[in-house]
Amino acid sequence: MSELPATPALAAALLRLRVAVDAPQHSGIAAPLDYLSERPLAPGTLLQVPLGKRELLAIVWDPAQEGDQGQVLPAEQLRQVGPALDALPPLNEAWRRLLEFAAGYYQRSIGELALSVLPPQLRELDGKQLQGRLKKLAKLRTEADASAIEASAVPELSVAQAEALQRIDTLMQTDAAPPPLLLYGVTGSGKTEVYLRAAEHALAQGRQVLVLVPEINLTPQLEARFAERFAGRHIVSLHSGLTPAQRLRHWLAAHLGEADLVLGTRLAVFASMPRLGLIAVDEEHDPSYKQQDGARYSARDLAVYRARLERVPVILGSATPSLESWQHANAGRYQRLALPARIGGGAMPRVRLFDMNSLPRNKGVTTAISAPLLHALRQRVERGEQSLVFLNRRGYAPVLHCGECNWKSDCPNCSAWRVFHKEDRTLRCHHCGVAERVPRACPSCGNLDIAPLGRGTERLEEQLAEMLQGVLRPDGGPARVARIDADSTKLKGSLESQLGAVHAGEVDVLVGTQMVTKGHDFRRITLVAAVNPDAALFSSDFRAPERLFSLLMQAAGRAGRDAAQAAQSEMWVQTWHPQHALYQALLAHDFERFAASQLAERESAGLPPFAHLALLRAEARTPEVAEAFLKAAAEAAAGLSTAAQLLVYPPVPMSMARVANVERMQMLLESASRPALQALLRAWLPELQQLKREHRGLLRWAIDVDPLAI
DNA sequence: AGCACGCCGACT
DNA sequence: GTCGGCGTGCTC
Predict the structure, then answer these.
(1) What is the DSSP letter of A589?
(2) How far lies A1's CA from each of A37, A56, A72, A78, A418, in Å?
(3) Is the CB of A53 within 7 Å of strand B?
(4) Any bridge partners for residue A322, and if so which?
(5) Residue A418 CA to nucleotide C6 C1', Å?
(6) Between the CA of A310 and the C1' of C10, what is the distance in angstroms?
(7) How far apart are CA A271 and CA A285, in angstroms?
């Protein structure tokens, strides 16, 4: 099957097919390849093809168009396709257009992207095995129908919710592509209810609904909420935490049109859904929607593109929208729907800024918890209420330090400190993973007196337990402090069990990283404290303030969701810069003011959303090699046609310049015109492939379109 | 990416 | 003599 056709006459008798194969970008195979087939195969059909010495899973792509460039090989030089998986319906036109756009926009080959978003297990199945899976799936389906349960009661809508829904309904009726909807409402204002109702309407019209969430952690609870409302409907999840068999099963259910609702993380934006009728992107501002390796796509942006392509409504929901989406709404390209109040009359917690400058400075060591905050924590424990202390840094201390010779626990492989983890007495690098037992004495001078510098959640938990010793709950028991972060939840199911303990009231003071600020609904928390958030104010990352504001708003949203307690709930922020505009806006819960000031800064600095960015990154054993490659790349770019509309900055080391002994440099490209930037990247890519060959010692290069950080 | 081919050092 | 080191280059 995979041999070359024996004669030119035979070759001429076969059909020519374009096939997208899974070849990585640096292979130089960007476009689909030509093969021969004895019978016609519809575009979107999965099949095996020979490539070199291998047999790969690939996808029949659309025939070449008139204007397509690239040389056409004579039929005698083409190989024949292998067996097709034609038990599976072909991936439809809309899906192919989505992939074609995404591959082009993020500068990857179609096949590479397409195969990376299909369930990995498809690669291992032949036609017969696939038929078996499909049969099993059909059987499961009939069993599920028999066990339908009663749907839960539907709550009444607030005026704002009803109005939002009315607008969505109108958009669902129209035939043209509706504008994206920006659903803007604080935590607890009932955004999820709007998704549920909009989904209900789409389902009633016989359509499928796609709901995206930023993190795997958030899928189970959202799934539970949808399952409760839509009993009897077929709901599946799609994320990388599924077993290969589950992922295939769920994907097939979506692709065959059997699943009514698909809930998932960013990769679910590529789910094949033949009856798609609505897309919702929850917490649309969340950075997790941007893929950080391989094809660096933004699932939120692709959701918007997909909705336009399929002429279905897309709802972007957030209490703190991304400045990109906010600006689109300002310009009238997105329709803004505001949910101004919390459901049930609950108020947002009162924000209090605690000025750290007012503390006596002569102690030399600053305390993590100021006396007034400690007092507030004490009071909550004594009243039987819960508190959340938020510190976005895990481990015991970020660095270990020798007071004698000034040694610090740097990582031998990275330009970063190794973090002191007291629990297992290790020094661990959070970037390359290298771990080592904590030395007894300074490795440099032998001094025994080495001390942790700064603090992470582990140390904060320890200090809080100490500070709250002797404080009693109303039932006479001692105060209980617990911690939730990436270290405490490494084991499967441990996040759920720890959250369960908090919900059950078995914890009085919860210490956590941003992990606990996302989505989890803690009914009894009346105090949220951010202990040391200032670092982001002075970060070189232009999006750091936006992220901090959203994180603090989200953390504040953890408090007072129970209306009975809302009146007395508070958010404390300990800061050295209480006058900073970010904190002043937070004080007033005023996202709009914050967004306006940030947008003004971005505009004057020529940053997104007023300019479009792309990064070229290079990795090598030495910074010189990486830099030389980038400089050559800049020269090549200058010679290309759209270069005039483009600004190419000099190469600089990445903020984490060395990871695992690899030196990393990057170069920023900026343009006011997205098409000009896109055109340049397209023309640049072949030149970069050539340059890679000329620059010995260059390990890898990559393009990041619309990077999150520069 | 795989998987060839290719051209130089220490082993049965 | 040849086993294998990983540099270089190709895959319709």
Answers:
(1) T
(2) 10, 14, 22, 12, 55
(3) yes
(4) none
(5) 33
(6) 39
(7) 21
Where does the pLDDT of residue A5 fall: very low under 50, low under 70, confident under 90, or very high at 90 and above?
low
CA–CA separation, A709 vs A654, rounded Å?
10
User: How far does the CA of A412 sit from the C1' of C5, in Å?
Assistant: 28
A323-358 pLDDT tens trace:
999 999 999 999 999 998 777 767 788 999 999 998
Radius of gyration of chain A (CA): 28
Report cis status (omega within 30 of 0) of the bond before A609.
yes
Nucleotide nearest to A700 (CA to C1'): B1
HSE at residue A664, side-chain half, CA atoms within 13 A, is 17
User: For tokens 């001078």, what's the residue?
Assistant: A445
Q: Looking at the predicted structure, is the pLDDT value of residue A99 above 90? A: yes
Question: Which nucleotide has the shortest C1'-to-CA distance from A27?
Answer: B1
Nucleotide closest in space to A24 (CA vs C1'): B1
Locate tokens 């070449």: which residue?
A: A64
Q: Extract the annotated binding site of A for Zn(2+).
A: 402, 405, 411, 414, 429, 432, 442, 445
Q: Which residue is nearest to nucleotide B1 (CA to C1')?
A: A24
- Phi first, then psi, for residue A566 (nearest 5°) are -60, -35
Q: What domains are defined for chain A?
A: 8-116 (3.40.1440.60), 152-344 (3.40.50.300), 346-394+456-601 (3.40.50.300), 395-454 (no CATH), 612-705 (3.30.70.600)
**CA dihedral sign of residues A165, A167, A170, A176:** negative
Token pair 């020979």 in the structure block, residue: A50
Q: How far does CA A93 lie from the centroid of its chain?
A: 26
Lookup: nucleotide whose C1' is closest to A25 CA: B1
Helices vs. strands in chain A: H and E counts, helices first:
19, 27
Eight-state DSSP code of residue A642: G
What distance lies between CA A78 and its chain's CA centroid? 41
Q: What backbone torsions phi and psi does residue A413 show, to the nearest 5 degrees?
A: -105, -15
Largest distance between two CA atoms of chain A: 93
Question: Are A18 and A60 contacting, i.e. CB atoms less than 8 angstroms apart?
Answer: yes
Q: Which of residues 676-705 of A touch strand C (CB under 7 A)?
A: 693, 696
| Closest of A157, A160, A178 to residue A169, by C-alpha | A178
The pair of structure tokens assigned to A575 is 């800061």
Q: pLDDT of A624-675, one tens digit each?
A: 989 999 999 999 999 987 888 999 999 999 988 998 888 999 999 999 999 9
Q: Are A251 and A272 in contact (CB under 8 A)?
A: yes
Quickly state the pLDDT bin for A424 (edges 50, 70, 90): confident
Q: Which nucleotides of B are covered by protein (CB under 7 A)?
A: 1-4
Q: How large a percentage of chain A has pLDDT more than 90?
A: 64
**What is the distance between the terminal CA atoms of chain A, rounded to a whole angstrom?**
49
Q: Do A255 and A89 meet the contact criterion of CB atoms below 8 Å apart? A: yes
Cα–Cα distance measured from residue A443 to residue A569, given in angstroms and rounded to the nearest whole number: 48
Q: How many CA atoms lie within 13 A of A210 on its CB side?
A: 36
The answer to whether A606 and A699 are in contact (CB under 8 A) is no
CA separation for the pair A653, A646 (Å, rounded): 21
